[in-house]
Amino acid sequence: MFAGCSPEAWPEFVGTPAATPTPTVVDAEGQQRPAVTDAQAGQIVQRIAQTVAQADASTDANLAATRLDGAALAARTTDYTLRKQIPDYKALPAIPSDSLQIILPQAYDEWPRTVMVVADQSTTSTIMMLTQKDPWSNYKLVYTGDLGGSTQLPDLAPWYIGASQVPPDSTFLTIPPEKLAAAYADVLTNGANSASATLFDESADAFSKNVAADRQKRLDEFNSTATKTGTLEFGAAAGSQTPLALATLESGAIVAVTIDETDTVKPSQADVLIKLENNPTVKALTGVSESQTGVTTTFQDQLFFYVPAQGSSEQIRVLGYSSNILDAKVLP
Q1: Most buried among 41, 232, 242, 279, by the most CB within 10 A?
Q2: What is the pLDDT, as a whole number, of residue 269?
């Protein structure tokens, strides 16, 4: 073993098993090696799942942080906070530990490294992005989402070839990864009136339809009882997490981003109090049972897109997603 290297990192230095590329794959001369083999990816995901299961059982965010980072860690941290205060609060789904159907490692000899995997489960498939900071660190799960049953992934290189990572500011896609979240957040807010609406394939976008329907339902319920005493407004903006993107065979990319959705409730009269007794989740996160100024609740969406190459006639497609409450704060 190389001194100082993590158990998951050191096998990557001893080379990759030889394999014969399929006719549709071109192994470019000088291409760097894939970050992991298929066997290593399986071991990594199993270890992540085992550690997170232990953290889930004990609601230990510090333990979870040894195998989670970014959006995945943020979702778990909030979940643990709520489960400690609300006895019947439903825990997040377990991280799938086997049945990896797709493994797409970054072809890169340096660090940090990224690997995408898809785990096939009985009711759904889970898509995940993992990263390794340096040779001495373990891989951590950063993004996770569910694939729709009819989701069609783009053509991907096999694991023994790997894929290049697309920089956040790349201009070779229809939109740079770093601008994707803001563009889609505008679609969630403005729908067909968004300046970015034509970039996205509406027919393949169940997520935005679900968001619109859920917002309308909650707005109708709110207005039925509180329209004279308060207001409910919805918002969406790019999240704080760094996008991750791996190239596909058609020169497009699978891109993972976060979007922060917000619900803001405000009293419309000075003598009105917003009661939180019937909303234990917001009450637990804010630490108060009522507010005179209002409350903003933030939900974190983890979204996976297929973004075509610049000049393609294809539109951006939503591939998978997950959405969880992130925070709630009393307005100043």
Answers
A1: 41
A2: 84
